[in-house]
Amino acid sequence: MASDTGSFGIIDQDYASTLESVDVAEADIVKAAADAGFGEDDQHGIGMAVRECMVNAVVHGNRYNKNKHVHVNVTRSSSEFRVNITDQGEGFETEKVPDPLDDTNILRHSGRGLFLMGAFMDDVKVQKAFPNGTKVTMVKSLGSQT
């Protein structure tokens, strides 16, 4: 489906709030990244970012609630590969997420998701979804392929 911006939809799907869905979504999006022409390293990085984001959506956002889903929308244009992941949780403030590189947090087992998403993707934006939840938009430039 084409749009005015020259991008077209690749995936537009709801996933259950389960850890099994994390694997399925990651596989679906990595396949889409391969089809878009990304090399193995970029596919791996995109997969890691998607996994972190999906785990956050299922565990922290939807809290495994079987009545809630995670919506995934992936589009591609001539210049970028865009992944939107939206949960139906209560939302959170990014400023309140502890810095995983701070000495007091370095040994924590959680809290690295946003950091890793930013490390693997060219752009990451977190915003409130309407009427509730969190929407994370991750972009990988097609020009940044390795």
What would you say about this model in short?
The protein is of the alpha+beta class and 146 residues long. The protein contains three helices and five strands, in the order βααββαββ. Helices cover 32% and strands 26% of the residues.
Question: Helix fraction?
Answer: 25-40%
Total E-strand runs: 5
Shape: globular
Q: Write the element-wise H/E pattern from the N-terminal end onward.
A: EHHEEHEE
The first-level CATH class is given as: Alpha Beta
- Sheet with most strands: 5 strands, antiparallel
The percent range for strand residues is 25-35%
What report would you give on this structure?
This protein is of the alpha+beta class and 146 residues long. The protein has one domain (8-144): Histidine kinase-like ATPase, C-terminal domain (Heat Shock Protein 90). It has 3 helices and 5 strands, in the order E-H-H-E-E-H-E-E. It has helices at residues 19-35, 40-61, 113-120; strands spanning 8-16, 69-76, 80-86, 123-128, 134-141. A 5-stranded antiparallel beta sheet has the order 1-2-3-5-4, with helices on one face. The protein starts with 7 loop residues before the first strand and ends in a 5-residue tail after the last strand. Residues 105-109 have low confidence and may be disordered.
